[in-house]
Design goal:
By secondary structure, chain A is mainly α. Chain A has a two-stranded antiparallel sheet with strand order 1-4. In chain A, strands 2-3 form a two-stranded antiparallel sheet. Chain A is built from 14 helices and 4 strands. Chain B is built from 3 helices and 13 strands; from the N terminus they run αβββαββββββββαββ. In chain B, β12 and β13 form a beta hairpin. The longest helix of chain B has 32 residues. Chain B is elongated, with a radius of gyration of 23 Å. The mean pLDDT of chain B is 91. The chains are: A mainly alpha, B alpha/beta. At the A-B interface, α7, α9 and α14 of A face α1, α2 and β4 of B.
């Protein structure tokens, strides 16, 4: 339990750093990029918007590396190949907020959505629709942005005056913070089902795993005592324990390292080398059937 | 259950889940489309001075259910993602913005670098050809929203901060079309 709290605290500090770097009233990263590298961009969360950058990329407008959001997007994409979705696991406070808040809600009030609906295909389906949205004549990039809403909530909290919200933003808040947030097991339902940023990083991480020099989650079968603490603590349900066997779904993993810090035997590590989860046929079978045994 | 059968079920569920993800986003996008009138915007330009811009009309009845439930009285008179208010004169203008006659509280916001967030004023002049973005946030008491068809009527006035002359006036009308006269 001590390890769990220690890891949560460590991760919490990272998320606060992420908040200071990307969100108003600080936006330190954007301020640094605009001053030091003379890039253009806003100093609030819009100045680091990955979604607009990716949407522009798909629209054929390219990735502008003279803007703060272009550079930040480029770094996130490259980092996802080599280090996994570190942005989600270390810096994204919009994902962390419902996760941490969900720990205050009793388990019996939380739904384990992944038991009924596998998240990875939903998220990739949502990503494809998100990318195709401009061609379909619909707009979802800004209207349903939980990052922008997060910033509005924080700024509203500081000035004790909530910003003007649209129906789409209110709906986003309801789903992100409540339905798929604090009332979802792990609190990361929005991340695992709907976040396009996480989806893109997961795809790149999945590709990166094949390379021996990239960072990935590794399991030492010799050290593992299948206590299930990692599965219990995993906020995205990437690690599950079934029939005394651990299975790992890389598509759900956000590289938060909660499992690494929690494991009492140090059987899980995040490092370079071969993908140690794929070697065991039996585990692979459990992994493949995950979410199907309804 | 055989591995083949499990594999088939897995594929079928994945396809359904994939479609579900896509449909959620498409549904959300279409819902947003139906609420386009929930956040109207305006654009204007300073040309000759003392101009009256096209009236800005906001209809409470166009709000979606979430907005109506949570904050129906919080309304924005905004330039949105459009061209903003363009300075078409040949001089740089330091703009002062104030509201007149609008019910409830009002506050100015802008993403323009010339706007000082603390004093809520434009502190740098707008050069010729440049545009300023503006958002006038209104907070109208709930009790007024369903009283009359015309909820509030007033204007946003743009002044030249150096000499006090009026650059333009934006008439603003907040209505609730669900109420018949």
């Amino acid at each position: 339990m001590k390890n769990v709290k220690k890891t949560l605290l460590k991760r919490g500090i990272w998320y606060l750093i992420g908040f200071g770097l990307l969100y108003a009233p600080f936006g330190l990263l954007q301020i640094f990029l605009t001053n030091a590298l003379k890039l253009t961009g806003r100093s609030d969360i819009h100045g680091s918007c990955f979604r607009m950058a990716v949407a522009n990329l798909v629209k054929g407008k390219g990735l502008s590396l003279v803007t703060t959001s272009g550079v930040i997007t480029f770094v996130i994409l490259v980092a996802a190949i080599f280090f996994g979705p570190q942005f989600c696991g270390k810096l994204c406070i919009a994902g962390a907020l419902p996760e941490y808040a969900s720990r205050l809600v009793p388990d019996k009030l939380k739904i384990d959505w992944q038991k009924y609906i596998p998240s990875a295909p939903v998220r990739y389906g949502a990503l494809i629709a998100f990318l195709a949205a401009p061609a379909l004549g619909i707009s979802v990039t800004c209207a349903y942005c939980n990052y922008s809403l997060m910033e509005k909530l924080v700024l509203g909290g500081i000035s004790w005056d909530l910003a003007i919200l649209s129906s789409a933003a209110i709906l986003t808040g309801f789903v992100w913070l409540f339905v798929l947030g604090i009332f979802t097991k792990g609190g990361r339902g929005y991340c695992t089902y709907l976040c396009p940023i996480g989806a893109v990083q997961s795809i790149l991480h999945r590709i990166g795993i094949f390379l021996p020099f990239t960072y990935k989650l590794k399991l030492s079968k010799e050290n593992c005592i299948t206590c299930g603490l990692c599965a219990k603590e995993c906020p995205t349900r990437a690690i599950t324990l079934k029939d005394n066997l651990l299975s790992y779904n890389v598509h759900n993993c956000i590289a938060c390292s909660q499992c690494v810090g929690t494991c009492p035997k140090k059987a899980i590590t995040f490092g370079r080398g071969k993908d140690s989860w794929a070697g065991n046929k039996h585990e692979q079978y459990v992994k493949d059937t995950e979410g199907v045994m309804l | 259950m055989g591995l083949k059968c499990v594999s088939f079920r897995r594929t079928a569920i994945s396809i359904i889940a994939f479609s579900l993800g896509g449909l959620i986003i498409i549904g959300a996008g279409n819902y947003r489309k139906t609420l386009i009138d929930e956040a109207p915007s305006f654009s204007a330009s300073f040309e000759k001075g003392n101009e009256t811009f096209k009236e800005f009309v906001y209809d409470i009845n166009n709000q979606g259910i979430p907005k109506r439930l949570v904050q129906p009285g919080k309304i924005s008179v905004s330039t949105g993602h459009g061209g903003g208010i363009v300075n078409k004169t040949d001089k740089a203008i330091l703009v002062n913005v104030r509201t007149e006659g609008l019910a409830g509280k009002s506050e100015l916001e802008s993403t323009n670098p010339a706007f000082d967030k603390k004093s809520k004023k434009f502190v740098k002049p707008i050069k010729p050809g440049e545009a300023l973005s503006l958002e006038v946030d209104l907070e109208i008491p709930r009790s007024l929203l369903s009283k009359n068809r015309i909820v509030s009527q007033g204007s946003v006035i743009f002044e030249n901060a150096n000499d006090g002359t009026i650059l333009g006036t934006l008439p603003v009308k907040i209505i609730n079309s669900a109420i018949r006269d």
